Amino acid sequence: MFYHVKELQYHAKPEKPDPVYAKKLQEILGGQFGEISVAMQYLFQGWNTRGNGKYKDLLMDTGAEELAHIEMLATMIARLLDGAPEVDLADAAKDPVVAAILGGENPQHTIVSGLGAMPSDSMGNRWTANYIIASGNLLADFRANLNAESQGRLQAVRLYEETDDRGVKDMLSWLIARDTMHQNQWYAAMRELEEKENIVVPSTFPRELQKEEVAYTLFNYSQGNKSAKGRWANGISMDGCGMFNYVEHPVPHGDRPKLRPAPTYVHDTPLAAMRKSDDTPDPDMK
Amino acid sequence: MFYHVKELQYHAKPEKPDPVYAKKLQEILGGQFGEISVAMQYLFQGWNTRGNGKYKDLLMDTGAEELAHIEMLATMIARLLDGAPEVDLADAAKDPVVAAILGGENPQHTIVSGLGAMPSDSMGNRWTANYIIASGNLLADFRANLNAESQGRLQAVRLYEETDDRGVKDMLSWLIARDTMHQNQWYAAMRELEEKENIVVPSTFPRELQKEEVAYTLFNYSQGNKSAKGRWANGISMDGCGMFNYVEHPVPHGDRPKLRPAPTYVHDTPLAAMRKSDDTPDPDMK
Amino acid sequence: MFYHVKELQYHAKPEKPDPVYAKKLQEILGGQFGEISVAMQYLFQGWNTRGNGKYKDLLMDTGAEELAHIEMLATMIARLLDGAPEVDLADAAKDPVVAAILGGENPQHTIVSGLGAMPSDSMGNRWTANYIIASGNLLADFRANLNAESQGRLQAVRLYEETDDRGVKDMLSWLIARDTMHQNQWYAAMRELEEKENIVVPSTFPRELQKEEVAYTLFNYSQGNKSAKGRWANGISMDGCGMFNYVEHPVPHGDRPKLRPAPTYVHDTPLAAMRKSDDTPDPDMK
Amino acid sequence: MFYHVKELQYHAKPEKPDPVYAKKLQEILGGQFGEISVAMQYLFQGWNTRGNGKYKDLLMDTGAEELAHIEMLATMIARLLDGAPEVDLADAAKDPVVAAILGGENPQHTIVSGLGAMPSDSMGNRWTANYIIASGNLLADFRANLNAESQGRLQAVRLYEETDDRGVKDMLSWLIARDTMHQNQWYAAMRELEEKENIVVPSTFPRELQKEEVAYTLFNYSQGNKSAKGRWANGISMDGCGMFNYVEHPVPHGDRPKLRPAPTYVHDTPLAAMRKSDDTPDPDMK
Amino acid sequence: MFYHVKELQYHAKPEKPDPVYAKKLQEILGGQFGEISVAMQYLFQGWNTRGNGKYKDLLMDTGAEELAHIEMLATMIARLLDGAPEVDLADAAKDPVVAAILGGENPQHTIVSGLGAMPSDSMGNRWTANYIIASGNLLADFRANLNAESQGRLQAVRLYEETDDRGVKDMLSWLIARDTMHQNQWYAAMRELEEKENIVVPSTFPRELQKEEVAYTLFNYSQGNKSAKGRWANGISMDGCGMFNYVEHPVPHGDRPKLRPAPTYVHDTPLAAMRKSDDTPDPDMK
Amino acid sequence: MFYHVKELQYHAKPEKPDPVYAKKLQEILGGQFGEISVAMQYLFQGWNTRGNGKYKDLLMDTGAEELAHIEMLATMIARLLDGAPEVDLADAAKDPVVAAILGGENPQHTIVSGLGAMPSDSMGNRWTANYIIASGNLLADFRANLNAESQGRLQAVRLYEETDDRGVKDMLSWLIARDTMHQNQWYAAMRELEEKENIVVPSTFPRELQKEEVAYTLFNYSQGNKSAKGRWANGISMDGCGMFNYVEHPVPHGDRPKLRPAPTYVHDTPLAAMRKSDDTPDPDMK
């Protein structure tokens, strides 16, 4: 159950309107690695966690915080839109800034949301739960989270570079710091489980049931062998269970596949047409 | 540029048809962490990599391999569908197996693809590039890759549990082993960059520009303090740059946000209606 | 900013596992009118509301409650999945219940989420922000909310009919009651604004700028005139500003549109081919 | 069955080309509340209506009209694109209007549709049936329709504000008037059913099966109690069946949920790793 | 502008309910090549056609007919659902037919649409305008149409095979016949334009601006040379403008691409980390 | 199985950066008819082809080539982005070119991909497998392929017109030539199968099972009879099996559909409300 307080976790006030930047800032609100994604991802992971231990608590702590970040960004975007001039093509003739706004704004910020934030990214793609991950396996999911915070901080930093507004930069410097913490925390959680389970997910699948002979092999499927020099092709494997090796000229280990003629009720290309289509009989087709 | 050979990387031949399992197996072909996802993810990362060093080569090696895995799964699914009985509701009266097939098969496997594999997951959602990640920052992306191989191996293992077909299990044991390698290799690549860059992505953003005072703080936004006992709340941070700390009762650091009345041209709720809607004047609305 | 407590708003415990019902119940968690939709819709409306009056407070109160409903449903679904038998096609031969499970379960509940809830609907479509609405105009949005609670309660009631599990029914009877309140509250809010603004949204557009002559006309575009008998075709209009009227045989008020030949740089069908394609010259093409 | 006439319902001829506005106008053709949405929504509701009474007729009348509106907008957009200059970055150096066009146009209007309208919104998102609603319950659906016409008129009015083209404004004044009628008509239909069924959808669910004790309660989940002053928290409920009440400090009515350890075949985090992860034994995990 | 008549183009009455088949039949209503797709495709092509000649008329004739086909299928699906038993897992124990229904039905047909048709395919994917094509070039689009009718008839035929219901088969035999006509008509239209424009779209691009030396070459990128025996690798080209030729061992015609280091403001992997990552200096990185 | 070589199939080097054009060029990389679409389409068709004859070989040859085209475009886009100036609204005041870039660039090219190509189209829509087709029936699929190459070449030609960069034009002239070959080759393959199967897909459905009486009829559902003059309405049908005919005034061949009242468990509008809603009893409702 959730309680809301009206105050923001941190300030979200720009110095001045900037509808073009408002469009860009949508990326970290409603994009693939925006705040909606991390909020929903951590909450779903928390709800699906077994027991009530510290991992579940950590997930719920962080999920609830990310909801506050959605709120900060929604507020910032509305304020970047407030007071922006209404512009049209006739105005552009006189002023390149108007031209830039006309081209660079998100028209839905006026037409659809009435100068409010939208649950979408910087190109207007609506947020989708395709972005999130909750597998029930915490080591796998902590890696998903470490990735999410890495991509998220990277995008926030790039956005930091694209504005001179001190209010926006102030808010981003908060979010960037929180992403530093979140990378650190998921890293710690990941390492803790790796110490118990080793690094390969899932740890509970009996090793002997996989083809051990190719479990530590780098196949060179792309011309050039620079990858042969990496750590991943030399020495003991990262999980300590094998020796890395490199196959410079990989060959197929399977057959050339042959699909049987389809049953007539699916009306694929009739066998007669297929047969006649070759100058010589196809030995694969009985 | 790519060359194709007709032989499979490894065998993909089931003992017998099983259209219900064919539907399930689609998950690791066209699902969020299926083979299309990893193939496209690694190739796009490779194409966007600067220079021509070992990381690019590794990405292209592995991307090309994943294309071969799509092929193996497509072949296996077509064969699981081949020879499956055509069933309808009348038949179900006599045989629970028919009932199970009727319910559990993917009808598009007949109607749309003519007993062939589809570029979609086990619930029929078509594959989407929303699933993939290529940021230009390799440490971020190697984490995405480590996650993808962790989720992917987890799903392959779950599917291994759901069949008794020795042909299917044989193929899965190959794919599971390859996922072991790929987890190891991305882990190695991640660690290598972490040794150079430290763990926080991006490493190039000046630390002093983030709010350092909250860069190592765990805020307890979910009732209960089990998370206070974790590594992430105690001692030196994982990046070695700070001390973790825990705030049991986090308070807001920002104001209660007030959005100004909207300009008339957006036709939001008129100010008069908003004002009158409160019994007392709203001090937030000037 | 949000705080989370670990206790649920209301109990979410089924009597026994039922993976087929778990699949169905996803509809009101992650479907078009599921709890994710209403939570996100009310929160975005709240964040985009001008001022800090009672409407904003009401939106935030209700948005926060809906987050608790997501949590209840996620918990219920995980419990409906827990303890469910692992089944395959061979088992189905012996037991129609197994056949029903094999057909009726969502395979992603095992393969993807590890027996946890998913952010998707009963057919496995991932939740998308296409479902939500926040326009900045509260009268419009309260109507969206009234609709959402109407559709949502309808779906919950249909799901109530589809189970005999007393635990599930107990939880649904809570959610259904809350939907009763929410329909009442949005109805009250809608009526309050209608009393100030009249019923046509937006109220701020000058009436004289619309074509008043067709602002109260029902055009009979579908054969048969049963619709002529409705309130909407007779008497004073609902907004009190006009008289409803009915046009039995509507005629076009516009011209037959003619598009000019495309400029050559778009390489549409060349004019020569278009021209020659008619036996007689086309007077529409100069 | 449908017949088409070549004449438009109303004129759709701009004074001059304006590719930037053409991009914006796509919103009410192929957006969430564009004409495709209302056409498809009313037609599906009509086809799914039981019997052949006046409601079905009204739905089919209006659905057929909305098809004519798609046609008007498609024509208008094609004409706004016709004759627009072909521009590139070199030209922009000389003319801010060119810069505005280059930024503000939809490149697919040239590359994909050859200067024709597209079935997408102003940010290029293709139309999706996620937008539409047809539940089989007409009171619910009339509310969906009232919302759709409210959002749709609001967007048309905002677009009216964003152009000076008299031809465009003339067409919009027609569409805005029609939306006035459609809001009136769905309002009338909604009220008529409410008089028979009362306001809570569905009316056919026995009241005693819902938790009556929370069916008229406003829970204050967001700090501050401005919402306590609303009609929705005081007096008899809108449906006349209860008394509204307000709970200032809502508490949980459910337990802290505990999920059982997952069965081994799903390979979630192993119990051992979960157990050891807490310094003290977790009483929730048996 | 459109007029609707209440009668169907052809009968749509099944002998008996069959909710499993209703789910399957959704494919040709709301799937990739369902009737919504062809209706919207032909109408958008018609609205975007230049002039008012016979091609535009043909497109509007056929688009309007496809609207009638949506209506027939929506009616048929509602009737296949009407009278279907309400079933649950307990019932399945006694009856494999119930098990089949429980597994094979679309739960949204009850929960969401109230026993009505949905705008989605047989796996529940909502219809999307991603499926349709309207390029402004009629020869290209007639090929799209020929394909759509080919895929559509194929799916209708497969569905014909999957039922014994004489009412359903009767309706399908109508739709299949209409698809025969539509394949014939688009074929005729395509051939007519090919006679004027030759076969390569667009015909208006000057041949000398393409690399003529590879305009008729089959590159053998997949091992094995069976494709060398085809018409496409021998003799004069289909457009009569070149000679087909076959390259058994294709080589690259381009360089090994090198991307320059990224500017610092995008925070890609820092050059230092890239450089050090190779044992030897990378000559591609200056 | 696939092997990759680092060299490109053809050069992909622009003369100078142009981020606005980079955004546009995404269309033929990740759009509906971009290179991802054709690569995936041909590969899936190949994997689903029965036997191992020349058609399968041709599909795999071409699918592998299209992977190389993705690579060329990804490289070109990255280079068009490299060296582009970082711009903001303040800069736009001074320079219309900056204004054009600010409006016309894809912000995700900086924020998300770090100056790399994205798997999306020119409006930022991520690629989806909704775009592709693999039916198991080769004649149907060759038509899909002919269409894809027609649309693809058309889009490449339009993009050719929109740039003066000689490097870009050089690469496009290669791709345009390859599309010429691919149109020729699918045309040849289509004609070959048509000679064996005749033109109507699928050829294996017994003609007598379709309603022959409407298999060659053009129904005039759109006012005006220009379409009556076409080849499709006169003479022997294209498949040679019938005579085309034209029905100027088509009438319904089906009944007015009546849906029965819904069972109570779906809670559609209650029959009482429906009945009372008409002034006179509805004869359709028993």
UniProtKB/TrEMBL annotation, chains A, B, C, D, E, F:
<feature type="binding site">
    <location>
        <position position="61"/>
    </location>
    <ligand>
        <name>Ca(2+)</name>
    </ligand>
</feature>
<feature type="binding site">
    <location>
        <position position="224"/>
    </location>
    <ligand>
        <name>Ca(2+)</name>
    </ligand>
</feature>
<comment type="similarity">
    <text>Belongs to the manganese catalase family.</text>
</comment>
<feature type="binding site">
    <location>
        <position position="35"/>
    </location>
    <ligand>
        <name>Mn(2+) 1</name>
    </ligand>
</feature>
<dbReference type="Pfam" id="PF05067">
    <property type="entry name" value="Mn_catalase"/>
</dbReference>
<dbReference type="GO" id="GO:0046872">
    <property type="term" value="F:metal ion binding"/>
</dbReference>
<dbReference type="InterPro" id="IPR039377">
    <property type="entry name" value="Mn_catalase_dom"/>
</dbReference>
<dbReference type="InterPro" id="IPR007760">
    <property type="entry name" value="Mn_catalase"/>
</dbReference>
<feature type="binding site">
    <location>
        <position position="66"/>
    </location>
    <ligand>
        <name>Mn(2+) 2</name>
    </ligand>
</feature>
<feature type="binding site">
    <location>
        <position position="57"/>
    </location>
    <ligand>
        <name>Ca(2+)</name>
    </ligand>
</feature>
<dbReference type="InterPro" id="IPR027407">
    <property type="entry name" value="Mn_catalase_C"/>
</dbReference>
<feature type="binding site">
    <location>
        <position position="182"/>
    </location>
    <ligand>
        <name>Mn(2+) 1</name>
    </ligand>
</feature>
<keyword id="KW-0106">Calcium</keyword>
<feature type="binding site">
    <location>
        <position position="222"/>
    </location>
    <ligand>
        <name>Ca(2+)</name>
    </ligand>
</feature>
<dbReference type="InterPro" id="IPR009078">
    <property type="entry name" value="Ferritin-like_SF"/>
</dbReference>
<feature type="binding site">
    <location>
        <position position="220"/>
    </location>
    <ligand>
        <name>Ca(2+)</name>
    </ligand>
</feature>
<feature type="binding site">
    <location>
        <position position="149"/>
    </location>
    <ligand>
        <name>Mn(2+) 1</name>
    </ligand>
</feature>
<keyword id="KW-0464">Manganese</keyword>
<feature type="binding site">
    <location>
        <position position="69"/>
    </location>
    <ligand>
        <name>Mn(2+) 1</name>
    </ligand>
</feature>
<protein>
    <submittedName>
        <fullName>Mn-containing catalase</fullName>
    </submittedName>
</protein>
<dbReference type="InterPro" id="IPR012347">
    <property type="entry name" value="Ferritin-like"/>
</dbReference>
<keyword id="KW-0479">Metal-binding</keyword>
